[in-house]
Amino acid sequence: MEHVKYLILGAGPAGLTFARRLADKGETSFLVLEKEEEAGGLCRSVEVDGAPFDIGGGHFLDVRRPEVTAFLFRFMPKEEWVLFERDSRIKIYDIMINHPFEANIWQIDLEDQVSYLLSIAQAGCNCGEEMPQKFTDWISWKLGDKIAQDYMIPYNRKMFADELDELGVYWLEKLPNVSFEETLRSCLAKKPYGQQPGHAQFYYPEKYGYGEVWLRMADSMAEHMCYGQTVSGLDVTNRIVTCSDGGTWQADCLITTIPWICFEQISGMPEQLLAALRKNLKHSAIETRYVRENLDTQAQWIYVPDEAVPYHRILVRHNFCKNSRGYWLETRQERTDVYEKEGEHFCPGYHYLNEYAYPLNTAGKPQLMKELNVYCGSRKIYGLGRWGEHSHYNSDLVVELAMKKADEIRAGE
Questions:
Q1: How far is CA 32 from CA 256, 275, 321, 338, in A?
Q2: Cβ proximity of 70 and 192 under 8 Å
Q3: pTM for this prediction
Q4: Beta strand 327-332 with 313-315: parallel, antiparallel or unpaired?
């Protein structure tokens, strides 16, 4: 059994940032275990048709956290990135309108604008109704029945799960907030008002996929990286990790950035907590699929709520990745059977299945994660990042949280 002071599970943005932060503070006794043969996690890239393809779907570097961009620019200098103004669209009624929907309904026919405005005006949040606790009810309460039925409910059903009411409402502050007054003003002035969505400005590498920056970060501490290690067991009491090939490590402090349900065996955890973890931590699997043709649009990505279409989002590669062509589709695994039926005539090209793509924000998750964090944290085991915290975090937020967590743990020693 090998022993290290810090053992980090997973070499995605969370694990790499935590490890690099340790190294920056002079720590040498740490090790990162990674299942794949290279670093990057969901942000990995491969070359497809002569240009980068991000296998985890659309990942971009938001500009809103200067400490994060400065940190990442150490490994891939700013000159190697291109700054973009976000252009994302929603395909509805066979037309494209800009995102967010409620700030841009002025781009559709007048008769439909009136219908949407009436629906928003009658939404529960504008009529003094109490906020509901079911996902589908909340969408109607916030945005009105028409936006809910035409866009938000079908889109989220395609992306997350068929049974949306398994989801809670606690995470919906992530949505851009556009009031009825701002929507009305948008229609009258024919320009968007209200809160900007995330990634209003973003960076993307000029010559590489988004995975390049994580590869470089991993290379900067290569002696601390251990690839091809599939974690199978966790002994919570003794902070011992076992891998499927028989390798075993013990740590003074354990950081897990991998999904909790990846552990085939967990010992030293109360049965009730373990059962709740197995039952309630749910996720969706997403396939990314490359299509070689260019699209006639300036958008970098397009949301597709039409449930007759299998995919929920299009990433238009040639509009953010220099010297490339084509686009890629994101499709929830349960909806990919159409590709098999239609064969190569539907979507020819490379495809990749991400078994763990999106954590589902189920109603009971916050309480479960609180109990899990308290129990494991008291034993110096910490969940971190999208999967360690089971939250739908973007990579820039993950980096920020990982830096803070590394500083916090070291300060408490």
A1: 10, 28, 30, 39
A2: no
A3: 0.94
A4: antiparallel
Of 325, 75, 98, 303, which Cα lies nearest the Cα of 210?
75
In the predicted model, residues of the chain with pLDDT beneath 70 are 174, 176, 342-348
Q: Which residues lie below 8 Å from residue 163, measured CB to CB, with a gap of 6+?
A: none
Tokens of 226: 């251990």
pLDDT at 345: 53
Return the pLDDT at 202: 96
Record: fold of 45-90+283-359: Polyamine Oxidase; Chain A, domain 2 (3.90.660)
Q: How many residues does the chain have?
A: 413
Residue 391, amino acid = S
Domain residue extents for the chain? 2-43+211-282+363-411, 45-90+283-359, 100-196
Residue type, 349: G
DSSP 86: -
Helix, coil or strand: residue 15: helix
Neighbours of 159 (CB within 10 A): 20
For 36-75, the three-class secondary structure string (H helix, E strand, C coil) is: CCCCCHHHCEEEECCEEEECCCCCCEECCCHHHHHHHHCC
What integer pLDDT is reported at residue 344 of this predicted model? 52
Residue 61 to residues 181, 199, 329, Cα–Cα distance (Å): 31, 8, 20
Place of tokens 């997350």: 160
Tell me how far apart the alpha carbons of residues 139 and 133 are, in angstroms, rounded to a whole number: 10
**Closest C-alpha to 43, from 10, 69, 18, 19:** 10
Q: For the domain 2-43+211-282+363-411, what is the CATH code?
A: 3.50.50.60
d(CA 230, CA 235): 15
In eight-state DSSP terms, residue 196 is: P
Q: Would you state the pLDDT for residue 329? A: 95
Strand partners, 226: 33
